[in-house]
Amino acid sequence: MSKLVVEVLDASDLMPKDGNGSASPFVEVDFDHQRQRTQTKYKDINPSWSEQLVFNVSDPKNLPNSTIDVVVYNDQKGNHHKNFLGRVRISGISVPLSESEAAIQRYPLEKRGIFSNIRGDIALKVYAICDPSYSAAPMHFEGAGVVEPQKLEEIHNKKLEEEVKNDAGKKNKKKEKERRTFHSIGTTNFHTAPPPSFSGFGFESGKPVTTERRSDFARVGQSTTMHMQFPGQPEFGLVETSPPVAARMGYRGRYKTATTYDLVEQMHYLYVNVVKARDLPSMDLTGSLDPYVEVKLGNYKGVTKYLEKNQNPVWGQTFAFSRERLQSNLVEVVLKDKDFGKDDFVGRVAFDLSEVPVRVPPDSPLAPEWYKLEDKNGVKVKGEVMLAVWMGTQADESFPDAWHSDAHSVNVENLSNTRSQVYFSPKLCYLRIHIIEAQDLVPSDRGRNPNTLVKIQLGNQLRFTRPSPNHSVNPIWNEELMFVASEQMDDRIIITVEDRIGPDKHEILGVLALPVFAATQRHDHRLVNPKWFNLEKHSSAKEDEEKKEVRFSSKIHLRLTLDLGYHVLDEATHYSSDLQPSAKHLKKPSIGVLEIGILSARNLLPMKASDGRATDAYCVAKYANKWIRTRTILDTLAPRWNEQYTWEVYDPCTVITIGVFDNCHLNGSKEDQSKDKRIGKVRIRLSTLETDRVYIHYYPLLVLQPGLKKTGEIQLALRFTCTAWVNMVNLYSKPLLPKMHYSQPISVHHLDWLRHQAMQIVAARLSRSEPPLRREAIEYMLDVDYHMWSLRRSKANFNRIMSLLSGVMAIGRWLNDICMWRNPVTTCLVHILFVILVCYPELILPTTFLYLFVIGIWNYRFRPRQPPHMDAKLSHADRAHPDELDEEFDTFPTSRPPDLVRIRYDRLRSVAGRIQTVAGDLATQGERLQAILSWRDPRATAIFLNFSLIWAIILYVTPFQVVAILLGIYMLRHPRFRSRMPSVPFNFFKRLPAKSDMLL
């Protein structure tokens, strides 16, 4: 008969439940109508059980469809209740079929409901045994000694008998201890239904839930087995690593450059700089030569471009060969003549790697030298080639522009797409146009009053004013429109005044074209004087008639300002990397330096499997206005970049974003035919990093479409160095955004539109660089579609709110326990403290702040030890339904069939209906508060006014301390003096009228 073995090892950091900062936990495991439990560990929030619980598997074929429930409880001694400490649900599909395949796995404890207050994790080892002759290791039980495996059935029978005796009231203390240690419940007494699945904001039954396992890597250094995981189970946590970087090794045995490139591993390269050649011989019958150079090292070969009919060619190309891939002790530089058939050999130069010099920056670059060409036998021939050969690292100036050995198969035209590069976003500012009025407009029909509006275009930005309320030739609008302008200021503002004749028919009454620099720059909210501008005629239908008329022009009154006091947002505010205003003299001083080393990646998914290739991965990082792009490592699932970059930091409450992409532009693909694929990204908030500490971790790369996938892990090294402590601390008292955002705020809806326009300008500018930073990469880094509807994100935000409210509910339950005298000692102490604070009210604020100080000091040991990362559970991504993700990544407007859209619309109506109900309930409570003094219910208002008058007189003649003590004692009265019926104030409030009965 098959067995399922659940080894319960230990747990850590459990939630205290006994009121004294401790708990008495035990574990209950439920599988296939069988329930067993471990012994109780009294007064221990970091218990260690090391027990094996063995279950019978009635149908091994049904094991993948089963669920193993592991629940941790607190044993309340002397009470029939047990406190919930957390649970773990394990899908049977992930259970290995032998002990050798099983590994110890740490699971974070999950909540039972949205108001549960749970923390900690539990270590389990789960596996199935198909051999009926299985012998488990000896199991230890409290008060029962050691039990041999062959007596397992006897133990089951004995425990069942004890269960019957316990139900009849015939048990002793020793038997009670044994029952707490190990027992099972028959199928007739216990039944488990499939757990419900979460859909929308409610629950639907009948859909089984499989919970994915996640490891807690905070303890990764304590056990080597914690790195292991079950097959097919994704891992979404951080893994701390210790690569041999100089910052961790104290610069021991490192170059001088280790002080600069100390967050990455030193990678050595052989550099060959082919500069030019001279006096080459004639090889063709025509007396010409089409020379090119081959640089060969083992099986690696780099080829320069060939130059037609040139006996003194100049190439200026540098080749780099990784020392890890050196396959020969000899590097050959062969000069050849390009021919239709076989290329002719001209000459060669060979170097022994043992004699190649080593260059260490900041030494000057190695000077190239002239070398005489030799034939295949080593005899000098006509011609010379200028070369420089040296050993260096990625700190060398030639590294970014070198033609690397793994990219020798890429042609010269696409080589730039593999190189590392630094980009800067264009300087952006807001252009504010205030359209005040126009005069002397001339419509084609002089007898009608025109219905005028103004259209303004700046680049690809197009805005319209509302039609003028007065239909005349002198319309007034008095409306402001905002645009995003770039630093070049070479765009033109096209202002058009139109007369709306019909629904789709407009007549142009005048046009004005102005350069952007014609607007007045301002740095505060003071108004700029408006100006009158002449409108030009758009067309002349009656040229002869116009020649006879007196020449005049219509005019428009405008106020044009370039608002340099704002920060132009191209990212969402809550994870923005830059908060500086556009004006340079308004920017804050630097408070530190952020250094990031992009080391490597591992376990990347093969993005080009259909083409027989792996992945051509590169990284993009964005902080403030500086973008960086690493070198593309070709055709590997474990690339190693080891590139380090630095940013100046002006505000610690900012976020750096690092994205990983697959390069799809290496074979001459056009931009409209191919786009770089997303592999994943990481966001890290600088304020969560300790200063001068080096963080080196593997971060999970997660992609949602079409389901949650772990596409690999990226290894990053981070260090935030503060250079101005006083300025940094002072920033916490300053507003997050520049002053103009508060003195003259922009609406949220308008800000989203401006952010989208800023992103379009940045993407258009950076895509014109060489190598270009592609639009798809910029949109992914800036989250261009963040504002789109997502049921998954709505659930995540809802759960975040419920998590916050759970703390308030916990305080309410604690106060209720005090009032209900659950713990008489604690309640008496609260009485004493309450009386002291009432009699000496000057102690209230000091006591409050001292209490907050003590809580903060107590929580110091629970502080996060790792930088933040994308949390799949918080994002509700690990439990999202595929249809929800398909809806999230659908185009706008939708491209799905009508039947599917109808289903989604009905679901959206259901969710919106619940939100509508909650909003109505909140409005009802507020309206009841307003109704107290509004005389909507004259009797209720009269009762409250009389009550207020009586209490005003009582409070006037009675000392406040006496009233407060009496009120507090009444609130803390013993349960025997309480009634189960609602209180009088509650009943009075519920009877107050609201406006809900006035709704249609």
From TrEMBL:
UniProt keyword list: Membrane, Repeat, Transmembrane, Transmembrane helix
Main location: membrane
Regions crossing the membrane: 828-858, 943-972
Highest taxon in the source lineage: Eukaryota
Pfam families: C2 (PF00168), PRT_C (PF08372)
Bilayer disposition of the protein: Multi-pass membrane protein
One GO term describing the cellular component: membrane
Entry's localization field: Membrane
Residue ranges annotated for the C2 domain, each copy included: 1-111, 251-371, 409-529, 575-699
Database matches in PANTHER family: MULTIPLE C2 DOMAIN AND TRANSMEMBRANE REGION PROTEIN 6, PHOSPHORIBOSYLANTHRANILATE TRANSFERASE ISOFORM 1
Protein family according to the UniProt entry: Belongs to the MCTP family.
Name the record gives this protein: C2 domain-containing protein
Organism expressing this protein natively: Papaver somniferum (Opium poppy)
Taxonomy of the source species: Eukaryota, Viridiplantae, Streptophyta, Embryophyta, Tracheophyta
